[in-house]
Design goal:
With about 400 residues, the protein is α/β, with parallel strands linked by helices. The chain has 13 helices and 20 strands. The structure holds aspartic acid and magnesium ion.
């Protein structure tokens, strides 16, 4: 008998009819002889509504009460699914975070899971129940309700799969899996059959919004294989798992882009110890994350520094940077908000050379100027003018052979 975790996202439980479909799918797995744990999100749009209500009452609502409120969306779906399953003749029991319990720290609205009690769930399963658990929520050691951050029910599902040593962790969503790039930009984008944790982390942080990043970190730490798949069909989705030789053979697994950053350059910075720290410390103190940083070789005792920050923090960052630049005696500050970051991701890069130069050539052939470059072991990113984003993503997708393979008769 296998123990399976089945997580359904907001669109999959978006209305009564869809909840019934989820119940059928869950029942089928149970009928196949599995022990089944279901983890649910709130109905699509519900959490947004709750957040808006809290904000309508107060600009920055009390954090404890905010979590009490936004955690309620999942209470609705777990009870409805349990009622539905019982109506179909199955034994089902719903569990809120504190009833499991899913113990977290007390960082309201972004709590981290510390421990999951498995006894009650096991008992429920052994008594022949389908266990239906609220995603997104937990409880701190003082009994306060906490939530795990937006999209957190993915992390709930993976953590529960790890704690109960489940054989399968299926994440059912409204897409067929993880794609080689955004299908809205490139219709030829193809579904990836399997992807390593590290690639998925790069893809997620770069904007492929299929899984909450933290769920992938969790899965990597505990070796949980995640199967991302559609709740509307039976097609196999994407396995997110440990790297294997087959993955190494593929040069590039996916192309991502991010239009959410802005670029700041500081010119003629005196080349002395401590200047970078003087520039960047105020940003980190203001909780502004700096992404790419480039410092040029100094000439005549002066150097130029260019870096990117989230566009949403751009105005705040600029004020801080201008002040710091003046203090360290730099010459001037220039900015560019119309940039995009285009990245190629793949574990195959580790063992193959020439991947980056293929990328640069492909962009050059289209006359796209590269403003900044950064690389890691499994990723190369280029900053370009954002009006070329689509073109860049398309040519890179093409040059690395990621398009759907046509099925042809010999
Ligand atoms: N309902 C929560 C949200 O919308 C958690 C989730 O769906 O994963 O963020
Ligand atoms: Mg989600």
């Amino acid at each position: 008998m296998a123990l399976v975790v089945m997580k359904f996202g907001g669109t999959s439980v978006g209305d009564m009819c869809r909840i019934r479909n989820v119940a059928k799918r869950v029942a089928k797995s149970f009928d196949n002889g599995n022990q089944v744990i279901v983890v649910l999100s709130a109905m699509a749009g519900e959490t947004n509504k709750l957040v808006a209500m809290a904000r309508e009452m107060e600009d920055s609502p009390n954090e404890r009460e905010y979590d009490v409120l936004v955690a309620t969306g999942e209470q609705v779906t777990i009870s409805l699914l349990s009622i539905c399953l019982q109506g179909m003749g199955y034994k089902a029991r719903s569990f809120l975070g504190h009833q499991v319990p899913i113990i977290t720290d007390n960082a309201f609205s972004k709590a981290r899971i510390e421990r999951i009690g498995d006894r009650k769930i096991r008992e429920a399963l052994d008594e022949g129940n389908i266990a239906v658990i609220a995603g997104f929520q937990g409880v701190d050691r003082d009994g306060n309700i906490t939530t795990l951050g937006r999209g957190g029910s993915d992390t709930s599902a993976v953590a529960i799969a790890a704690a109960l040593k489940a054989d399968v962790c299926d994440i059912f969503t409204d897409v067929d899996g993880v794609y080689t790039t955004d299908p809205r930009l490139v219709p030829e984008a193809s579904k990836i059959d399997k992807i390593s944790y590290d690639e998925m982390l790069e893809m997620a942080s770069l904007g492929a919004k299929v899984l909450q990043i933290r769920s992938v970190e969790f899965a990597k730490k505990y070796g949980v294989v995640i199967h991302v798949r559609s709740s509307f069909n039976d097609n196999p989705g994407t396995l997110v798992m440990k790297e294997d030789d087959e993955m190494e053979a593929v040069l590039v697994s996916g192309i991502t882009y991010n239009k959410g950053e802005a670029k700041i350059s500081v010119f003629n910075v005196p080349d002395q110890p401590g200047v970078a720290s003087q520039l960047f410390s105020p940003l980190s103190q203001a909780n502004i994350t700096v992404d790419m940083i480039i410092q040029n070789v100094s000439r005549g005792g002066f150097t130029d520094l260019t870096f990117t920050v989230p566009r949403t923090d751009f105005k705040r960052a600029l004020t801080l940077v201008k002040k710091a630049a003046e203090e360290i005696g730099a010459d001037g500050v220039e900015t560019d908000e119309n940039i995009a970051k285009v990245s190629i991701v793949g574990v195959g890069m580790r063992s193959h050379s020439g991947v980056a130069s293929t990328m640069f050539q492909a962009l050059a052939a289209e006359g796209i100027n590269i403003l900044m470059i950064s690389t890691s072991e499994i990723k190369v990113s280029c900053i370009i003018n954002d009006k070329y984003t689509e073109l860049a993503v398309r040519v890179l997708h093409d040059i690395f052979g990621l398009a759907k393979k046509d099925v042809k008769e010999e």
